[in-house]
Specification:
Strand order of the largest sheet: 1-2
Number of strands: 2
Distance between the termini: 32 Å
Structural class: mainly alpha
Strand content: under 5%
Shape: globular
């Protein structure tokens, strides 16, 4: 999979990634989520990653967030785990197990859930848009992330 080059701008990388990741992620929405997640993770320095690891973290999200992630995992298994990026699958495991998430992760949750809400086809249990949305905590996850970021003065 494409990794950002040191001199590459975000737009240049996303264009290249969208082209190169077509076979693995034929769904455009999944592909852009994947490419953006790779851009974000590759741009963090080692020091940033250490700060993030030790940053304040929270697991006070409602049970609905965990239940949505569990439902997303279950539905994704029924479609042979073809939906979502690896980042989305990891996020679902964190939420399903009520693990603590950092402020940076909460920001990513809010960003993804806000962007992807247009692809959330409520009740279509075979739709990757629906499954991926649940993996990130669903509507309850978006509400919690927004509330938590406002509480922390981050939004």
């Amino acid at each position: 999979m494409p990794i950002p080059k040191p001199e590459e701008t975000k737009n240049a990388y996303l264009n290249r990634c969208m082209s190169e990741a077509k076979d693995e992620y034929p769904n455009q929405e999944q592909r852009i989520a994947y490419c953006e997640a790779i851009w974000d993770s590759e741009r963090l320095t080692a020091q940033d990653k250490i700060k993030e690891y030790f940053a304040e973290s929270f697991n006070d999200y409602p049970d609905a967030v965990s239940n949505n992630a569990k439902r997303g995992i279950e539905l994704n298994e029924k479609v042979n785990n073809r939906c979502a990026t690896q980042v989305g699958k990891v996020r679902a495991q964190q939420l399903a197990q009520k693990q603590k998430v950092t402020v940076e992760t909460i920001k990513r949750m809010y960003s993804y859930l806000s962007r992807a809400e247009v692809y959330y086809e409520k009740g279509d249990t075979k739709s990757c848009g629906y499954i991926s949305y649940l993996l990130w905590g669903g509507l309850a996850g978006k509400r919690w992330a927004e509330s938590k970021l406002k509480e922390l003065g981050e939004l």
